[in-house]
Amino acid sequence: MAEGRGEQEFTRFVQRTRPALRRIAYALSDDWHEADDLVQRTLMTIFLRWPELERRDRMAPYARRVMTRLLISDRRSSRWTREVLFGVPPEAAAAHDPYVPVSQRMMLRDALARLGPRQRATIFLRFWEDRSVEETARVLGNESSTVRSQTVRALNTLRDALDASST
């Protein structure tokens, strides 16, 4: 019975901390695939030691420390691995215009400048910070219906501005 409760505690810990661990892992590795692997290995390491860990209320800092040490260990060991490449390297990808992302960002910035401050704040909170309608309403001091209508109007304004600048 104690094992089942320990696994349930671990499951709740994973559900609560996995998104934050994934963001931290990406910040450390700058690669989403490596970040996912790093989070998985971190959670496996913690799971194996879960029964003997005492301060379960302070597991998030411990998980970050485990993750950092795993990454450092990986990076150290990769310097000593010997890989031998065989065959012909793959074809190079077609060259793309490096200024396209810059011009797209500039068009988006100009389109965002056309929004009023409340609409811009609504778009930022809803889509950049990935907040719900209710959270956004609470932050802005509005009703949920106001947030929804400002979101619709702001997105329509952005679409119109981006359509006009792309043609």
UniProtKB/TrEMBL annotation:
Q: Which Gene3D superfamilies match?
A: 1.10.1740.10, Winged helix-like DNA-binding domain superfamily/Winged helix DNA-binding domain
Key word Transcription regulation present: yes
Q: Which Pfam families match?
A: Sigma70_r2, Sigma70_r4_2
- Establish whether keyword DNA-binding is in the entry: yes
Taxonomy, superkingdom: Bacteria
Which ranges carry the RNA polymerase sigma factor 70 region 4 type domain?
A: 106-158
What InterPro entries does the database record attribute to this sequence? RNA_pol_sigma-70-like, RNA_pol_sigma-70_dom, RNA_pol_sigma-E_actinobac, RNA_pol_sigma70_r2, RNA_pol_sigma70_r4_t2, RNA_pol_sigma_r2, RNA_pol_sigma_r3/r4-like, WH-like_DNA-bd_sf
Q: What UniProt keywords are attached to this protein's entry? A: DNA-binding, Sigma factor, Transcription, Transcription regulation
The family database entries (SUPFAM superfamilies) matched by this protein are listed as: Sigma2 domain of RNA polymerase sigma factors, Sigma3 and sigma4 domains of RNA polymerase sigma factors
Q: Which residues form a coiled coil?
A: none
User: Boundaries of each RNA polymerase sigma-70 region domain copy?
Assistant: 13-81
Cross-referenced NCBIfam families, in alphabetical order? Answer: SigE-fam_strep, sigma70-ECF
Q: Into which family does the record put it?
A: Belongs to the sigma-70 factor family. ECF subfamily.
What PANTHER family has UniProt attached to this entry? ECF RNA POLYMERASE SIGMA FACTOR SIGM, RNA POLYMERASE ECF-TYPE SIGMA FACTO
Q: What is this protein called?
A: SigE family RNA polymerase sigma factor
